[in-house]
Design a protein that fits this description.
The chain is an alpha/beta fold. It has one domain: Glycosidases (TIM Barrel, Alpha-Beta Barrel). Helix content is 40%, strand content 17%. It contains 14 helices and 13 strands. Strands 1-2-6-9-10-11-12-13 form an eight-stranded parallel β-barrel, surrounded by four helices. Helix 13 links the parallel strand 12 and strand 13. Helix 5 runs parallel beside helix 9. The chain is globular and about 60 Å long. 46% of the residues are buried.
Length: 374
Amino acid sequence: MPDATMWTYPWDLRDEGYDAVLRKLREEVKLDAINLASAYHTFDMLRPHLPANNTLAVSQSAIYFEPQKSLYGAIKPHVSPLMQNENWWGEAAKAASSAGINLNSWTVFFHNSYQAQSHPECAEVRCTGDPSTSALCPANPDVRAFAIALSRDLVLNYGISLLECESLAYSGWGHLHYHAKHGIDLFSLCFCDSCKKQAMEANIDIAQLQSAVTAKIRMAFDTGQPVRETITELKRTIPDLAAFDAMREEIVTSLVRELKASVDVPLSYILMGDSTITGSNPKAIAQIADSVEILSYTADPQRTRTRVSELLPIIQSPDQLVVGLQAYPPASPDAKTLCANLQAAREQGVTKFAFYNYGIMPLSALDWVRQAIQ
């Protein structure tokens, strides 16, 4: 059988019963692990399992465990007020151990509106000088220290089996506090003081580059017409943009390397978004991380097959790849579709799968996951 895990929220375990849910996922669904949200962004979610109060909205990014405060520097973790005097992660860790299911930390690092607004000096900055209200910059030393402290905290105090990294990169414009979409890739580039400093050390004329990028953005603002060239295409016409892109990739890659060295559990990196926007170089990161993950939320197995085939040549082996599948409609309208998507990856040697998401899917879909695993 494949190695299978499921993304899960701690508030669902708390409200439905830690032991009951985890035993069901281990004994009936046959999962090997859960990827439990430890640090998470804002959300407004549907909760179909409950008899009442079927929506939950959270307006602040937060962590869902009691932190070891001595580990942190300038940026302190914001503990979710939802927990009140409880420690949801502590309870989940005990229940996971009792149920015989591994506990992985699903950690959203820099897509964090609370920290970006509390520490604007650590946030990404657009070419126009506008600071992000939802994204920390991976080039900032305090941000990097925060990421390492958060990871060490989870490893030292909660016995996690794996550290799963989401948004350990540049966040890009469009992935905001409100998850709005605007579609101007160039506006994703960060020109904060930390990025400017690194650019100057790399002999990049950062003032000229910022001016050229801003001119493109202003033209789009003035005319209402989008910037039709991609960042990759603009590298041929805007001086130093290619060097700046390479610098951003090294910032992210070096942080993954530092994080990997700071913890003694396997590290898994979720590849999300275009590398020119996020700075995430799949080939470089695959040389460091124990596993890399792609999300294939689709009803078309051929799309899953294509996504896997495109990534396999640049990673070390199929065993290193985790394929994320959405286990409910519309991506999975039935068990047959979910099984077909899993099989499309299995045929190419993939053995690791993650299913999205326990709290959102109808309970009947758990049987679809069980069928897919078997």
